[in-house]
Amino acid sequence: MPRYELSLIMRALERPTLVEAMKRVVSELINQGAIVRGMESLGERQLPYTMMAHAQKFYYGHYFILDIEASTRLCHNINPYFKRDIDIIRKHFVVPHYIKYKPFECTGPYTGMYAPESKKLETDKKLRKKLGVIE
User: Fold this and answer.
1) Closest CA to 42 of 70, 19, 64
2) SS3 per residue for the chain
3) Per-residue pLDDT band at 18 (split at 50, 70, 90)
4) Which pLDDT score, from 0 to 100, does residue 97 have?
């Protein structure tokens, strides 16, 4: 299963209500088959711009980052739940940079079955000369 970071912006709620809302989100993720590896709260902050959700304007929100492992279908399957939950302002699935960009090591020239051979290249050159592509 691929690993994702789920960034959530929740409404500015009191602590007990916020805990209850996060329990709902995490339990729904687990019910959908995700594995929650970690959760980080970035605290309550002023939103960068006024956000509209559920026909309300929001100026402040609680930011959360959840580290999850889930199937690729989960991103689409969980969207209706997030749209119905009135405590969620924004959500976004992100593939972490340390997983997205793995270092690539060059092992030298390719010598496999599909490597171009010099004979094939010569016949290609002759064919191109016949057709007038190469002078």
Assistant:
1) 64
2) CCEEEEEEEEECCCHHHHHHHHHHHHHHHHHCCCEEEEEEEEEEEEEEEEEEECCEEEEEEEEEEEEEECCCCHHHHCHHHHHHCCCEEEEEEECCHHHHCCCCCCCCCCCCCCCCCHHHHHHHHHHHHHHCCCC
3) very high
4) 63
The CB-based long-range contact list for 18-24 (8 Å cut-off, 24+ gap) reads 18/62, 18/87, 21/85, 21/87, 21/88, 22/64, 24/85, 24/87
Q: Is the pLDDT of residue 30 over 90?
A: yes
Instruction: Determine phi and psi for 66, rounding to 5 degrees.
Output: -110, 130
Highest mean pLDDT among 37-41, 93-97, 126-130: 37-41
Tokens of residue 67, six digits: 């580290």
* Closest alpha carbon to 56 in 89, 95, 21, 31: 89
pTM of the model: 0.68
**Encoded tokens for 88:** 């969620």
